[in-house]
Amino acid sequence: MKIRQLLVLSATLMFVSSALANDGQALLKKYNCATCHKMGKKTVGPGLEMIASKYKGDASAQTMLEAKVRHGGKGSFGGMPMPPTPASVSDSDIKTLVSWILSLK
Question: What CATH number does residue 86 fall under?
């Protein structure tokens, strides 16, 4: 019985992880985040993998980055400020996008 539950749990986690990756990439494109943020290198803004690496293991990173994406910010990766995200972008989409970025390796 426990093996069955473990298999179901594993399959569920794989599905959720895959869905999160697809959603994160789709939102990155939808909201034009890739204009300033590339996967592995700094351009106008920091690379997404740089962000994930900087905040790895930081329990407060999700909430802090959601606020930074929503309201804008500066100083974490240099002098270029990040503009606030338009109100048309939902908090749910910001949460999904930040979760995806923090999951990158």
Answer: 1.10.760.10
Instruction: Assign 43 to helix, strand or coil.
Output: coil
pTM: 0.77
Between CA 98 and CA 77 the distance in angstroms is 16
The domain in which residue 40 lies consists of 2-103
pLDDT in tens, the chain (105 residues): 577 665 555 555 454 444 444 689 999 999 999 999 999 999 999 999 999 999 999 999 999 999 999 999 998 898 899 999 999 999 999 999 999 999 997
* 3-class secondary structure per residue, 46-93: CCHHHHHHHCCCCCCHHHHHHHHHHHCECCCCCCCCECCCCCCCCHHH
**Count of domains for the chain:** 1
CA angle 26/27/30 to nearest 5° reads 85
